[in-house]
Amino acid sequence: MVRADLVRTATALLFSLALVSGCGSDVVDSSGSRSAANRPTHSTIQRDKKPILERFPKLGNVTDIEWDEVPLGSASSRIPGPTDYRVSGVAHFAKEDVRRLQQDYDWAPAKKPPAVVESIAPFVPKGAAWKVNKEFTSEVTGDIYTARFHFDPQGGMIVFDIEIS
């Protein structure tokens, strides 16, 4: 009886060890980054307004847009479930909408220029007099998302950076 218990315990231990050894992390090169085969891919620059305006209808009447999204974290296919994304873009507005935004909100000078995903950076003008407003951010996101909106009245644009869970 003791021998049978010992065999069962040893078998269970070996089985558990085999399970745990299969739970390794993604392949990482010596610099600590993922190998090219395991890096999450992301989309190219998007110009379709619909996905952004469906999620954020209170953004307003956007005439043109450039945006991109990248997964946050590891985006591992080994772990099921939703992935968090960072969505950055530049939304352009007609002159009447720029006036409306200026009238409807008390914009304050931004302390820092907008931070966006790397692919969007070339679309963000340098040296603009960026303005921010917490009420606008709250209304557009419904206080559901972490977001930053930088308004450039002279350029008629808003640069956005949003974390979507």
From TrEMBL:
Designated name of the protein: Lipoprotein
Phylogenetic classification of the source organism: Bacteria, Bacillati, Actinomycetota, Actinomycetes, Streptosporangiales
